[in-house]
Amino acid sequence: MDATRRQFLRTSAMVAGSAAVLPSAPAWALPSAEVAISPTLSVFEYSQVQLLDGPLREQFVHNHDLFLHLDEDALLKPFRQREGMPAPGPDMGGWYDNADDFNPPENFHAFIPGHSFGQYLSALARAYAVTGDKPTQEKVHRLVRAFAATVEPSGKFYVDYHLPAYTFDKTSCGLIDAHEFAKCPDALEVHWRATQAVLPYLPEKALSRAEQRARPHKSVADTWDETYTLPENFFLAYQRSRNSRYRDLAIRFIEQDYFGPLSDDQNVLPGEHAYSHVNALSSAMQAYLVLGDEKYLRAARNGLRMVEEQSYATGGWGPDEAFVTPGKGLLDASLGTTHASFETPCGSYGHFKITRYLLRATGNSRYGDSMERVLYNTIAGATPILADGTSFYYSDYNYQGSKVHHKDKWPCCSGTFPQLSADYAISSYYRSRDGIYVNLFIPSRVTWSQNNTQCTLTQTTNYPRTNWIQLAFAMARPENFTVYLRIPAWAGAKTMLSINGSRAQETIEPGKFLACQRTWKDNDRIELELEMPLRLEPTDDQNRNNVALMRGPLALFAIGEIPSRLRREQLLAATAVASSSDDWTAKTEAGSLTFRPFMAIMSERYRLYNRVEA
Ligand SMILES: [Zn+2]
Description:
Layout: H1 3-19, E1 42-43, E2 49-51, H2 55-68, H3 72-82, H4 117-131, H5 134-148, H6 164-182, H7 187-198, H8 209-214, H9 230-241, H10 244-252, H11 256-263, H12 274-291, H13 294-309, H14 330-337, E3 342-343, H15 344-362, H16 366-377, E4 394-395, H17 413-423, E5 429-432, E6 435-438, E7 444-450, E8 453-461, E9 468-475, E10 479-487, E11 496-499, E12 502-503, E13 512-520, E14 525-529, E15 534-538, E16 546-551, E17 554-559, H18 568-572, E18 575-576, E19 584-588, E20 591-597, E21 606-607, E22 610-611
Parallel strand pairs: 6-10
Antiparallel strand pairs: 1-5, 2-7, 3-4, 5-6, 7-8, 8-9, 9-14, 10-13, 11-12, 11-14, 15-16, 16-17, 16-22, 17-20, 17-21, 18-19, 19-20
Helix pairs in contact: 2-4, 2-17, 4-5, 4-6, 4-17, 5-7, 6-7, 6-9, 9-10, 9-12, 11-13, 12-13, 12-15, 15-16, 15-17
Bound molecules: zinc ion (ZN).
The site of zinc ion has 6 residues, from helix 15.
């Protein structure tokens, strides 16, 4: 960075910090504030990666369409009502309404009025960035303007509001994204006003749930706020507005009592609320990037590793939305006691964010492996949100498992699902100084400029049903760079790479990115065949004989009547039913047993873990 620009940044940060005035020029035209760490890998812009036909694109298109057609008066109603403004239009229903009948645990109607408005706004802004669809951009701009009219300095909206930080954090994300991705001219100024409005209702620091319970409160719901997730969006608001007051706020809400022990490898997860504490790891990553303190990177890495150590074979975690104490067989025990095994859209959204941060900061492919396991076994099998807000919430790994909708409309998971489906594409590829990283195997196309040469890479695959992935280049002229391919840790010895039909010389090492450096030219193609051996994974170390059947990244769920006697060899000898089917079948003494991935399960009962003979 040259001296003039550095000086300019310093000056403008000072102006923004001291007078709390934002520049009048469109803020997206200005450079972001300086940060301490630039990760090795960067994300592409949303417009640079497109999903091609397949189930993940279907989820994105469905969510985009549903939120594009939501009634705007209904979305704004709780904000207008609580500010005493005229509030026309229908109620949304479920958690979203402003009413006085919320009565936990029996009745969750009107639990958190307007809670997910910011997430719907964020999802639409990202969908606009992916598609360039003008009506989507116009809707984002209209919603920001109408929301702005409800923001006044006294923050009447938050009077007697159970979870002010929770809702503000989502609003914050929506406004940042409206500015960044939908080029909304007012969004940052509204963000600053909304911040002023909520501050009198926030505590002096991030509070754990135990601390909240210890303080005076009117309702149990007042002890469920998530102040510890605020720093991520405050750090982002700082970078995008260059207003250093946001940096101060981010630092104020860093939960030191959580990140300190995690950075020293002390497991403080047991008993904590699962999703919000995984989400908080993304605040640690922003603290690391902006402040440059390695402690926060260690906290995020250790925290995610501890989560993975108590994950189900699907990659899901947190039975009954809580982390268990390790070493006591409690994950296994949860299979008989709860149907609320994994908070799927929120958990997957949080998991994608933290694995994306860690992959970018470390270049380690294990984070890509972790991301795809959660993708194919959980969110990709979530049933679609319905127009009335009926939503998929928990994946159920109970011995009597089935897919159900959540009883309350417009829950938290209706906010994270459209955000996540808009992020599938940018999670698939990353940019490095010397080339491109291919992280997820999804039908998709990425376009970028390499040394001023326009390059397009088109990925064709039916993965993970099949093990074959093709990457084809379209290039304006030949260019030398490296394509890094994620070779999953589970990949077998027969994994093969060929380039333009010939076996490549590179040595394939599972659990690493494989670097292919070449002078790439138009019509070159890479083919990767991943050997996907079957394996068995136990619930936990205390229950080695209760196992899930895995094939590559996929958990296979048993369908129908489960024989009383099962042996390991029988499961490991399972075979594909047909190339047109997702099903696998294992021969047992009692006949054949069908296995099916989560994505292919409809209303039938299923079972993830089955007991085998020792
Ligand atoms: Zn949720």
